[in-house]
């Protein structure tokens, strides 16, 4: 209880509350603009958070992260265009609502489902993270090494249909992380005599280039202005009551979203598909799915908003980011020498508890803002994409230079922006590159420590019980995935 009271005291800080509100509202707005989204906005904001207190910086980024999950439903309902890729199911189910003149009903279903999913996920974050961190205090280097390897394997498996591309992207990210001075023996790796590479590839230029600049190029080469949105007709508060008619779908989707969100590299897509398939099978209204079923919107939005807080559980408890946004947030920790993992709860309990409360209150701020300002935000969905591209590109260049006041960083960001643009054009995933860059130092250091303690004996990963269980589960998962892949090819 004292631990949570520490966080409540943090929330009493007016500056923190204002930053939380700003981040949440900004997240809703960018979530409502197709092509903007959380990844682009967080990558642009990332350099500015380095000068803030850690809790302030994380609160700002988490506000964007959570708010965008709500806001993406607005263009999905009104334009039949998902504000983010994970809102595809919402767009599919909401289209018939808009055609029937019930756009407000669809919107309120989406908002209320998002709120329940988000709040339940924050409660899970509050209940599960500290016990997991206490368990992780008993882990050694072998256990952390296998957890990191398992996270990378899950990243690849989570990219169903693109696993070869995911492996290639992950390997490229690993390679980028090896550039610079190798810490154990102070030797140079892949610097080719270039002084500016001695410190390695900076995270900020890569993040801004891959996610923000590449998106700006996509928008600049796009089709221009969006179509006019559907009219916001119907009863707005209908969905807030109607959602309670489907408790199994609402709470079941939220719980499954939380459980899958905890697993690194899996994310909203798999959680959505699992929930959607089972909800359709179990619902007496399953025949309506895809034709404007209220449960379809509930499944999509409850899942989307349950995953982001759940994805923070492995990062806070184990220091292992699960997807691109938590990997970006990890940079805020490292800049301030706040190391996520089991010791975080001993060294900075007020910081962790503060995050809990800000995320909980954040959901209330977002839902109140949406009820008051949906009509205004809906206009943002029709912004000309070329103007959006220019704004993103300009802010990206400014943010990259401001992060280190170094023109070489700007050049790197532009290179990664072109690379990201080409990869997007060929439908290659970008997330594994970032995760490879972030995870390589963790994997390398933990493997080195484990093997150093065993004089190079690889059986250490099998001789320790927890490490052996993780290794066995990982091998079983790989074999099952390969078996399913070969059977589907021969079918």
Structural summary, described in words:
- With 491 residues, this protein is mainly alpha-helical.
- The chain has a domain at 2-140 and 204-404.
- The protein contains 22 helices and 2 strands.
- It has a two-stranded antiparallel sheet with strand order 1-2.
- Helix 7 (103-136) packs antiparallel against helix 17.
Query: What kind of sheet is the major sheet?
Result: 2 strands, antiparallel
Strands of the widest sheet, in order across it, are 1-2
Rg over CA atoms, rounded to whole Å, is 22 Å
Query: N-to-C SSE series?
Result: HHHHHHHHHEEHHHHHHHHHHHHH
The DSSP helix count reads: 22
Poorly predicted ranges (pLDDT <50, ≥5 residues)?
none
% residues in beta strands: under 5%
